[in-house]
Amino acid sequence: MGYPLPRASAGPSPTRRAALVRQVRWFVAATITYNIVEAVVAITAGAHASSTALIGFGLDSVIEVASAAAVAWQFSGPDHQRRERTALRIIAVSFYALAAYVTVESVRALFGADRAEHSTLGLILAAVSLAVMPVLSAAQRRAGRELGSASAVADSRQTLLCTWLSAVLLVGLAANALFGWWWADPLAALVIAAVAVTEGRAAWRGETCCAPGVDDGCDDGCCTGGERS
User: Fold this and answer.
1) Average pLDDT of the segment spanning 147-159
2) Domains of the chain, CATH where assigned
3) Keyword Nucleus, does the record have it (predicted)?
4) Max Cα–Cα distance, the chain, nearest Å
């Protein structure tokens, strides 16, 4: 799926643009702060419970920090439009890295390696992330679309992917704890890995078209324009 941006003829005023840049910076800072805490908690809880899913979720948080840092770097100076493509490439590589790790660990889990024990802390973390991440993603995506920044929108997509991973983690940990269905998490994680590859490809290409059949907030089926280098 692509990253829908505003039409070139409907760009924001200089005052509004400055406000949007400040918003993106704030959202990125909030994302980085939350994901650092999330990574520490998830990796610690995962190591204690021998949970591959929790450790993978923590490493996903590290990748999310890298993605948000790329956008923070882009908007750290007045020439943020010129840094667009580099930021997109960094985000794309982080998507691919996430997909590779999740795939490898999911296959290992399916073949019986490192079956997780019950983790109350992991369940709480997944539930909190499931509540927090959609809010951050939606807010940054709106600001990025109005600003015309493909990298800001791409980073919001990765935050949304973290939301899906939170749901997968929550379902997997709950199913394992309640029913002993250890295979539920790695199977769902493989689906998330496929989505990550799709998002990484779109970010690498800098695509701005809306996905067919998906209500992405576009006026028509595909948006044009957007500030790209």
Assistant:
1) 79
2) 8-205 (1.20.1510)
3) no
4) 57
Q: Is the pTM of this model over 0.70?
A: no
Token code pair at residue 184: 């539920």
Grade residue 113 by pLDDT with cuts at 50, 70 and 90: low
Region 196-214: mean pLDDT is 64
Neighbours of 194 (CB within 10 A): 13
For 180, counting Cβ atoms within 10 Å of its Cβ (0-12 exposed, 13-18 middle, 19+ buried), the class is exposed
Q: What is the DSSP string of the chain?
A: -------GGGPPPHHHHHHHHHHHHHHHHHHHHHHHHHHHHHHHHHHHHT-HHHHHHHHHHHHHHHHHHHHHHHTTSTTTTTTHHHHHHHHHHHHHHHHHHHHHHHHHHHTTSSPPPP-HHHHHHHHHHHHHHHHHHHHHHHHHHHHTBHHHHHHHHHHHHHHHHHHHHHHHHHHHHHH--TTHHHHHHHHHHHHHHHHHHHHHHT--PPPTT---S-SSS-----B--
Task: For CA atoms 68, 134, 2, 147, give the dihedral sign.
Answer: negative
- CA-to-CA distance for 19 and 14, rounded, in angstroms? 9
Write the burial class of residue 9 (CB in 10 Å: 0-12 exposed, 13-18 middle, 19+ buried).
exposed
pLDDT band at 57 (very low <50, low <70, confident <90, very high): confident
